[in-house]
Amino acid sequence: MTPPADMIDHPRPRFAPWLLEPMLRNRRIYLKVALAAAMINLFGLITSLFTMTVYDRVVPNNAYASLVALSIGLLIVVVFDFVLRILRAYFVDLAGADIDHDIGTRVFQRLVGIRLDLKRGSTGSLTGMMRELETLRDFFASATMTAMVDVPFVVVTLVFIAIIGGAVVWVPLAAIPVVIGAGWLTRPALDRLSAKSLSEGQSKQSVLVETVGALEMVKTSGAATLLGRRWSKANRAHSDSAMRQRLVSTIATTVAASANTLSYAGTVVAGVFLIADHQLTTGALVACSILSGRAVQPLAQVATLLTRLSATRTAYRQINTMMDQPTEGPQNEALKPARFAGRIELRGVEFRYPGAAEKTLDGLNLVIPAGQRIGLLGRVGSGKSTIARMILGLYPPQEGLVMIDGTDIRQFDPAYMRARIGTALQESVLLSGSVRENIVLDRPGIDDAEMLRAAELSGTHQFMGQLANGYDLILADRGEGLSGGQRQSIALARALAGSPPVVVFDEPTSAMDQQTEAALIDRLAAELEGRTFVLITHRPALLRLVERIVVIDAGRVVNDGPRDQVLQQLQRPRAVA
Ligand SMILES: Nc1ncnc2c1ncn2[C@@H]1O[C@H](COP(=O)(O)OP(=O)(O)OP(=O)(O)O)[C@@H](O)[C@H]1O
Known about the structure:
- The protein is built from 19 helices and 12 strands.
- By secondary structure, the chain is of the alpha/beta class.
- The protein has 2 domains: 13-324, ABC transporter transmembrane region fold (Up-down Bundle); 344-576, Rossmann fold, CATH 3.40.50.300.
- The strands form 3 sheets. A 6-stranded mixed sheet has the order 6-9-10-3-11-12, sandwiched between helices.
- The longest helix is centred in the middle third of the chain and has 53 residues, at 224-276.
- The N and C termini lie far apart (83 Å).
- The model is unreliable at 1-13 (pLDDT under 50).
- The structure holds adenosine-5'-triphosphate.
- Residues 353, 356, 360, 378, 380-386 line the site of adenosine-5'-triphosphate.
- Adenosine-5'-triphosphate is lined by residues 353, 356, 360, 378, 380-386.
- Residues 33-311 form the ABC transmembrane type-1 domain.
- Keywords: ATP-binding, Cell membrane, Membrane, Nucleotide-binding, Transmembrane, Transmembrane helix, Transport.
């Protein structure tokens, strides 16, 4: 069974493996579709033969016995035709659903593995692109696929017309280039318009996602006017190009439909002369006129297919651009070391955000021995959160190295590494679903007992334990329905669950009152003992948790030492002033 590998090696036209592989896997089903199509086309020929026989043999001779026999035969054909048509639709759907599922999984995996430094476009345009999967699915799972299977039978039908109708075959033959020409000529315009319509649809989606995601801000800050203007502009542009796209494809499909009618009528007209010339019987003419419609029809369907092909190709290109991008993690075998002690080292790290003019980290050197708890201090925008992102491998440095336990973190499996770093970043983003799901996140090894332990540590249990449905409380999108402090507490429970050897907290108490914060610090002090802890904060109380302080300014370390010593140095200039 070598042929499939061959086809993957030299695909023409070049299809990406994410599309080609699931299609090839379904080749058996498509073979069944082709078989069913062949039978259905054969039945079509039989029906026309039936008509011809009735006109030429039954009508002139009043041969009712033959008519009964022929009718029974035809009835059987109709029943088979019915069953085969249903089977054909079912098989196309079956293959379509499998391909859709496969591609959906692959694309989603790629989406979550996207490298943040290579990410292009807004959240809205990314979701818009995911929506384009529907366009691809519609193409593979719809009747359009069956139209392609019917195309080779056009030749069979034409040969059949030539056999029974002779010169009449020139009529459908003349109609075919018209149909193909209409499809071909409109294609460049359709390609252009569907690309335009797709990008404008994504702009529309961007405005929508931004508005819905920040509805409270939109209302309170009066952003509705600005967003409303953006929305109508995007909407107008999109409906304009969608209208043009429909217009052009209507031209192609209408030309095909008219060619179909002309082919039928032309056959009848030409047939009259041939009958007069005794070259054709009336029955053969009727059969030919039916068949000439059947010869052009698949091509008319292909014209429709071509109009959809533009949209499908645009969607394919969009998705393929994302699928072609390198994902996170090493290209070769990723490391998953059994021991993860948590010694962190940033050596000569230089980093500039994509598109930013200034470097955020400028030759930063920092070693955090395993088990040490450090606080990162520094002014707003000095680069503290960026250091956390470097440690988590969210962005690779342009220069220098980020290492954990002496290994460049780019060699680790990103999911493996991040599962060992408990992280609570500045924004406490929760997901829709229960509080339990938000803490456990389906991670292996985190059972109810561990979830409760983490919830007690973070302070979540204080408010969740008292509610009747407690941890099964269902949250709306992004944790709506809870206060900011409660959300933050759940995010901390999520980070602490599973006792990861490294913990990175960025402003973990920014939404909490002093009392809640003090109680949290008491509980965390014992919990973090012996673990590598990186704390980014502007709140002095939290510094009780750390033994060393590193001060960052403009992406460099400007002070580093034992906590109390650095705190004294930081207070001194103020005392002098
Ligand atoms: N995603 C991003 N894209 C481009 N620039 C960014 C991005 N995130 C941060 N920056 C820039 O990098 C610089 C440092 O940001 P960072 O978030 O690391 O600061 P910080 O020290 O954590 O500040 P804060 O105390 O306000 O949290 C800022 O000047 C900011 O403009």
